[in-house]
Structure formats: C-alpha cells, structure tokens
Amino acid sequence: MSIAENIARVRANIAAAAKEAGRDVSEITLVGASKMNDADACRAAIAAGIDVLGENREQEMTKKLAEHAYDG
Questions:
Q1: What is the pLDDT of residues 43-72, one digit of tens each?
Q2: Do the bridges between strand 52-54 and strand 31-33 make them parallel or antiparallel, or are there none, so unpaired?
Q3: pTM of the predicted protein model
Q4: CA dihedral for 6, 31, 48, 36, sign (positive or negative)
Q5: Secondary structure (3-state) at 71
Q6: CB distance 62 to 36 below 8 Å
Q7: Read out DSSP for 1-68?
C-alpha cells in the first residue's frame, strides 16, 4: 500500500469515527511519525494530506529540514 493510499484509508476511518462520535472531523489532527523514513517519504505524506509529522531525534529532524522534507 502506498503512503497516499494508507493516509486516505486512515482519513476515512477518522471520518467514520468522528461521525459516529458526533465530532467535526476538522477538529482532528492526523499526526505521523517520520522516524526511519527518508525525506521523500515525508514529502509524500505531506502531499497526501497528513497534518503533522513528528521526529524523535533532533539530528534526524535537522537532516530532513536541510533536505526540505517538511515543505508543504
């Protein structure tokens, strides 16, 4: 499954759960972990509509920032 397909599936699950709970889906933030993924994967996730990417190591984040992984 591609990153875009996976994010679309997760978004659909979130929308269904929000509807069932009587919540507005726009109030929900989809957070992904970019740990162990390269800059291209980060850009793909952002292009597919992920709201936020998190990194657990400062040196990984710095490297990816230099590679414009989080642009968009």
A1: 999 999 999 999 989 999 999 999 999 987
A2: parallel
A3: 0.84
A4: negative
A5: coil
A6: no
A7: --HHHHHHHHHHHHHHHHHHHT--GGG---EEE-TT--HHHHHHHHHTT-SEEE-S-HHHHHHHHHTT
